Automatic annotation (TrEMBL):
PANTHER family on file: DNA-DIRECTED RNA POLYMERASE, MITOCHONDRIAL
Family: Belongs to the phage and mitochondrial RNA polymerase family.
First and last residues of every PPR repeat: 348-382
Subunit comment: Homodimer. Component of the mitochondrial transcription initiation complex, composed at least of TFB2M, TFAM and POLRMT. In this complex TFAM recruits POLRMT to the promoter whereas TFB2M induces structural changes in POLRMT to enable promoter opening and trapping of the DNA non-template strand. Upon metabolic stress, forms a complex composed of FOXO3, SIRT3 and mitochondrial RNA polymerase POLRMT; the complex is recruited to mtDNA in a SIRT3-dependent manner. Also forms a complex composed of FOXO3, SIRT3, TFAM and POLRMT.
Ranges of biased composition (kind: Basic and acidic residues): 146-155, 162-176, 242-264
Descriptive protein name: DNA-directed RNA polymerase
Length: 1329
């Protein structure tokens, strides 16, 4: 065995790779070491030391063997010294793998047996600076020639490096940094250029200026880089010349190498100059960014995000226990968490405060004192909430000693808190505030809280005048009396208190057949039975959970099953069964929906328990004074008025911020538990539809698994019997969550991140992925979001009504057979029949079976799609039918980029052509002198026929087809049907009817019109890019420049693509010949529009493929080749047309790539101060274990994970542009509101009355110019520099420093801009049209 080890060791040592040597030693000599080392195991030695020493115990003790081992040892010494030497070399773009070396003895003279006593000098070795190894006490041996050569190389290298460093220092002294201005870095991406912006600075923690650190790091980098390049350029000694001109050739080579070296030094010197300029920029701008620099990204921030879900779960559990009155459970749970150190770290002061509030309500001051002791044990400080609870408890006690209150106030003062802090920082429930004030009045009878409005204005110069100069503002009033608004509030409140709304289905308008009546009766009976069964099953499950002897610290579901009445849980289950599609629903989605419904009901009950509903009603009644038409005119915004009213009515509970958001994992777990009860207990008789079958109880819901792509997904599928009964019943009622419906009164204005929109239903200011918390954390840190709040409030305050004639026509078509041409989905009776065949039938061949299987799959897919579309249309039409005689409002919120959306998901003005046609403004305004012309122009725009015509040309065309317009309005379904050929047929029909009514009125200028006229941006994303880059050609293409007729970028690209296609066709390219006559504006429009928003070539190909498939005449077998060919032409054409756009896009992309590679997510702030962070991280899997199944959650927004570099870089350009177009929309909405206009938007499409189109157009252009007059890219550069480059990497040898330096230089050089004059936009008729 020893012989085998020796052979393998010798083979290993003979290789040149030291890593292999070490691995071989570790693998093959371990047994030898353990067997022969004896007492050596007790000696503190390194592994390689033992391995080398024990080699000698394996070999026979012959002179030849000793010599061979000695040579191998010397080779190891040389390899060690050589790699140490390489590690000490500074090569900027190469990172050596770190290799750990262990000192080893020389193998001269005697050979150690491995039993040398501890501390013997024979085992001690030192390594000299030159890399040689000397062994003390060992017999002397001559150093090898390898070692001598290495030593000499090291000395020569050190001398040259010192010489070059001195030379570089002289160069830096002789050439001031200022002379290198404008130099360009070789590290910059192609197409980017540099702008220097002066900036101001702040000192770092080490009292060293940020710029000094940058300068020091850059200086060392430049010096070392120059030394390295100079070393590489040193010429070897020339051989003795054999020809006459050899000397001159050698001198030429030396001169060339010297020039190369000087060139490298010059480039590095220019980089140094760039970094020095960035130093000045950071210094000058530093003070402006002090507040921003404190806002760390969640992934930098750390412990809070690391255990955020656990902390939320603990708080949610405690609050649930307290809500249901189970104080014993909540107290024991808190103590169990506190006793164990591993769980105590998740407890915060606010968690302890939950129990303090409980004892404060009961007047038990001794219990509060114990919790203060627990806080001290946990190393936590009491906060304002802690002292508020203690003082509230004292206020509830009749005979509380003033000395105790004084002691509490003094302790509070020692902790840096004032009495005013209690009233400004705490959230009060019920009478907590009054009890707190009573305690303070005991010792300070004259004290009154000093309350003040948050009057700080937005620092953005874009809106300073809007907030400070209001003398000419005329804020619009709603067309309602104060009494009407107060009555509407009561109706909306009752809807939200119920949490659900049951409405009539438009399918119920069909005549009832005998079978429909029978099925409805059977379903009603079954639901009554299911209700009893589920109620009993739920109560049994709760009893089991209550009796289960679980550990006190474990989070169970029992408190969450006691939050509502048992009947309410059962109603949620029945609603989920009723709304389930025939194809089933993913368990994860179904559980989430059920959990969210329970949470919503819980929040509403909390508000009742906390007595906030009464206070909300009081404030809202006073708030209507601002909106009603029969009250005085105010010069304040809705948000300001609401905050003022809250301050005036300060007694009682606080309206804002009382609820704890449940973590996503809790919502899923609770929802899964409820679904499990449904699956196990809901049954039906198998013979209910066919008495011929044997009667037995069968489940109506099945838990099964299906594949989504390559992932197995748990699915809940209804039994076909239930599906058949529901489809044949065509029930007349639909039940929705209350948040699905539009509001019956104006929404509560957004006044904070957590308060606004609905009266009682919880709503998020920013839409996020389930479980993503980083957006909310950023928003809460943001000091002033007033312009964002005010814009959302303005959009939400627009009242709507239903266009009844359009609704009636749509419902009539829907209840007949639908119309695919008019986008009215047909019923399932029109779906293709699913073929039935037996796979085992021998009459079918293998190919026939495969064909039949494909047909079955396609038929099922088609049926599923048709059902989804039909139900979506049913929901929209039923909601519209419910609201046909109402006036209503859409509360708004936004996504993480700042784009605004109505909160109700199904029916709103962001919907399809069908939905938009059913909506008109509740308030009407006279058409005025130009209103009728705008209606005609709007109609022509909806047809899509005159995109390249001037406004006058469109108006003339509208006048020329007035007969068709009137015919469409009078007889839409049986006349000429001209409206059906429009791009947006239903909106065109609605416009025809409005024009007909106006034309037939006695005086069209006085006709009261409720119809919204749209003004749409000309490829808005490209407009923002062109303005950012001041690109003259791009600006002209997207109508930023005044022109006689509109420039249609889609038609221009289509024309360019057609020219390239014709050229290729002439050369004989087959696919180019096939495409002749098929390239149109419509084919390329979507791809051109979305290129600016980051669509890839793959995505663009799919878009073009879809458009080509819509052309009946195009040969379907050429679709793939044609789409692949066209997307290449479109991308190349856009690249030529928009060079400035490409430069900015590349700069944004590369910036995001380097930022995410450094371990950060990309973050920025919009010009209105809205903070934005991209939530794209590497996906991690989290498993939720339940009795039904283990649900695998793929979480891609976890801030603890590293950023997803690909998503970060691809998403940054489109997300940044989206944030700009949302800023432009918000600015326009604010100034339209101050001018008294009705204004709503669908992203880059702005709506107003026909009377005020010209005013809106003026404001829209002015705000676009104002927005882009700001140094947007420079401010972005400054923000990113301070966000990601403030932590200086000074170690120039590391790869991390090189990435930091590249990022620093890239962010400091924004792309150059062109010569386009932004003021021209104000005169551009077709900028928005």
């Amino acid at each position: 065995m020893s012989l085998l080890r020796v052979c393998s060791l010798a083979k290993c040592v003979g290789r040149r790779s030291l890593a292999d040597v070490r691995r071989c030693f570790a693998e093959r000599c371990q047994l030898c070491v353990s067997a022969r080392s004896g007492a050596a195991g007790r000696i503190s030695e390194t592994p390689l030391y033992r391995q080398r020493r024990n080699v000698s115990t394996v070999f026979p003790k012959s002179e030849d063997t000793k010599k061979r081992v000695h040579e191998q040892s010397q080779l190891l010494d040389v390899l060690e010294a050589r790699i140490q030497q390489l590690q000490s070399d500074v090569v900027l773009d190469v990172q050596h793998a770190k290799v750990q070396f262990i000192k080893a003895p020389s193998f001269g003279g005697g050979v150690s047996s491995g039993r040398t006593p501890k501390g013997s000098s024979k085992d001690k070795s030192d390594v000299s600076k030159s890399g040689q190894t000397f062994t003390k006490g060992a017999s002397k041996s001559q150093p090898s020639r390898w070692m001598e050569k290495l030593s000499q190389e090291k000395k020569n290298k050190l001398k040259k490096q010192q010489h070059l460093e001195q030379k570089m220092q002289r160069i830096v002294k002789e050439k001031p940094l200022g002379q290198s201005k404008g130099s360009k870095s070789s590290l910059m991406a192609t197409g980017t250029s540099h702008k220097i912006i002066s900036s101001a600075a702040k000192k770092s923690k080490a009292d060293m200026k940020l710029s000094d650190k940058i300068y020091a790091a850059a200086s060392s980098t430049t010096a070392v880089a120059a030394a390295t390049s100079a070393k590489a350029a040193v010429a070897p000694k020339a051989p003795k010349p054999k020809q006459k001109d050899s000397k001159s050739k050698v001198s030429d080579k030396k001169a060339a190498k010297r020039a190369t070296t000087e060139g490298k030094v010059k480039v590095k010197d220019e980089d140094l100059a760039n970094v020095a300029e960035l130093k000045q920029r950071l210094n000058q701008q530093g003070q402006d960014w002090t507040s921003l620099s404190t806002t760390d990204s969640p992934q930098d921030g750390s412990k809070g995000s690391l255990c955020g879900d656990i902390q939320l779960s603990i708080r949610s559990y405690l609050e649930a226990c307290v809500f249901v009155g189970d104080i014993e459970r909540s107290q024991s749970f808190l103590l169990s968490q506190h006793r164990v150190m591993s769980r105590r770290k998740y407890l915060t002061t606010d968690v302890y405060n939950i129990m303090m509030r409980v004892w404060a309500k009961r007047g038990m001051l001794n219990q509060i004192g114990r919790i203060f002791i627990l806080l001290e044990e946990a190393g936590l400080k009491p906060n304002a909430g802690s002292y508020s609870a203690a003082l509230e408890c004292m206020g509830r006690q009749q005979n509380c000693s003033p000395k105790v209150i004084w002691r509490c106030l003094n302790k509070m003062r020692e902790d840096g808190l004032s009495v005013d802090d209690l009233f400004s920082q705490c959230v009060f429930r019920q009478d907590e505030r009054d009890m707190l004030l009573r305690a303070i009045h005991t010792v300070k009878p004259d004290y009154e809280p000093s309350l003040s409005l948050n009057a700080s204005q937005c620092s953005s110069p874009l809106v300073q005048d809007f907030y400070t100069k209001r003398e000419h503002h005329t804020y619009p009033k709603l067309d309602f009396t104060q009494e009407e608004l107060q009555e509407r509030f009561k109706r909306q409140l009752s809807v939200e208190e119920a949490c659900t709304v049951t409405i009539d289905s438009v399918e119920g308008l069909k005549p009832i057949t005998e079978n429909m009546a029978k099925m409805r009766e059977m379903l009603a009976e079954q639901r009554a039975q299911w209700h009893k069964v589920l109620l009993q099953a739920l109560r049994e499950s709760k009893m089991i959970l209550a009796k289960t002897n679980t550990k006190a610290y474990k989070l169970d579901l029992y408190p969450y099953l006691c939050l509502l009445e048992d009947k309410e849980y059962v109603d949620i289950m029945i609603q989920s069964v009723t709304n389930m599609p025939p194809s089933g629903e993913s368990l994860k989605i179904l559980a989430r929906d059920v959990g969210n419904r329970i949470y919503t009901k819980y929040c509403v009950r909390q508000k009742h328990q906390n007595q906030t509903v009464e206070k909300l009603g009081s404030i809202y009644d006073a708030y209507t004074d601002l909106l009603a038409k029969d009250t005085k005119v105010y010069n304040v915004l809705p948000r300001e008025q609401w905050c003022k009213l809250e301050m005036e009515q300060h007694s009682g509970p606080t309206l804002q911020g009382g609820e704890t958001t449940w973590p996503y994992i809790l919502i899923l777990e609770l929802g899964t538990f409820i679904v499990d009860i449904m699956v196990k207990n809901l049954k039906i008789n198998s013979d209910i539809l066919n008495p011929a079958y044997d009667r037995k109880l069968i489940p109506i819901l099945y838990h099964m698994y299906t594949f989504r792509s390559t992932r197995q997904v748990g699915f809940i599928k209804p039994h076909p019997i239930l599906t058949q009964m529901q489809q044949e019943a065509m029930e007349t009622k639909l039940t929705f969550d209350s948040s699905v419906m539009p509001m019956l009164c104006p929404p509560v204005p957004w006044t904070s991140v957590k308060f606004g929109a609905y009266l009682l239903t919880p709503a998020k200011l920013m839409r996020t992925l389930d479980g993503a918390m980083q957006h909310e954390e950023l928003l809460e840190k943001c000091e002033n979001l007033h312009p964002v709040f005010d814009s959302l409030n303005q959009l939400g305050n627009c009242a709507w009504r239903i266009n009844k004639p359009i609704l009636d026509i749509i419902i009539s078509i829907f209840n007949e057979r639908g119309s695919e041409k008019l986008d009215i989905p047909p019923p399932l009776s029109e779906a293709p029949k699913i073929p039935h065949f037996h796979p085992q039938d021998p009459t079918y061949t293998a190919s026939e079976k495969a064909h039949m299987k494909r047909e079955v799959i396609n038929a099922k897919k088609k049926c599923s799609e048709m059902h989804s579309l039909r139900m979506d249309a049913l929901y929209k039409l039923s909601i519209a039918h419910r609201m046909r005689d109402e006036l209503f409002w859409f509360p708004h919120n936004m996504d993480f980029r700042g784009r605004t959306y109505p909160c109700p998901p199904y029916f709103n003005h962001l919907g399809s052509d069908v939905t938009r046609a059913m909506l008109v403004f509740a308030e009407g305004k006279p058409l005025g002198p130009k209103g009728l012309d705008w209606l005609k122009i709007h109609l022509v725009n909806l047809t899509g026929l005159k995109k390249r015509s001037s406004l006058q040309g469109r108006l003339e065309y509208g006048n020329s087809i007035i007969e068709d317009i009137l015919d469409s309005a009078d007889d839409p379904l049986n006349g000429k049907k001209w409206w059906m050929e429009a791009d947006e047929p239903w909106q065109a029909l609605a416009c025809c009817m409005e024009i007909a009514n106006a034309v037939r009125s006695p005086d069209p200028t006085k006709f009261i019109s409720h119809f919204p006229v749209h003004q749409d941006g000309s490829c808005n994303g490209l407009q923002h890019y062109a303005a950012l880059g001041r690109d003259v050609i791009g600006a002209t293409s997207v109508n930023l420049v005044p022109c006689e007729v509109p420039q249609d970028v889609y038609s221009s690209v289509a024309q360019q693509v057609e020219e390239l296609r014709a050229r290729d066709a002439a050369k004989g390219l087959k696919i180019a010949q096939v495409l002749e006559g098929f390239i149109s504006r419509k084919v390329v429009k979507q791809t051109v529009m979305t290129v600016v928003y980051g669509v890839t070539r793959y995505g663009g190909r799919l878009q073009i493929e879809k458009r080509l498939k819509e052309i009946d005449e195009f040969p379907k077998n050429h679709v793939w080749d044609a789409s692949h060919y066209l997307v290449r032409l479109v991308f190349n054409g856009l690249k030529e047309m928009f060079t400035g756009t490409r430069e900015i896009q590349d700069w944004l992309t590369e910036s995001a790539r380097l930022i995410s590679k450094s371990g950060h997510t990309v973050e920025w702030v919009t010009p209105l101060g809205l903070p934005i962070i991209q939530p794209y991280h590497r996906t991690r899997n989290q498993v939720l274990k339940s009795t039904m199944q283990h649900i695998n959650l793929q979480i891609s927004h976890d801030a603890k994970e590293r950023p997803d570099t690909v998503k970060q870089k691809n998403a940054f350009p489109p997300n940044f542009i989206h944030s700009l177009d949302s800023t432009h929309m918000m600015l326009t909405s604010l100034h339209c509101y101050s001018a008294g206009l009705t204004f709503v938007s669908v992203h880059d499409c702005f709506w107003t009355h026909a009377l005020t189109v010209d005013t809106m157009n003026k404001i829209c252009r002015e705000q676009f110019v104002a927005l882009h007059s700001q140094p947007i890219l420079d401010e972005l550069s400054n923000f990113l520099l301070h966000k990601y480059c403030s932590t200086i990497q000074t170690e120039a040898r590391t790869k991390k420093y090189q990435e930091y330096r590249r990022l620093l230089l890239l962010l400091g050089k924004v792309p150059q801009t062109g010569d386009f004059d932004l003021q021209q936009v104000k005169e551009s008729t077709y900028f928005f049209c």
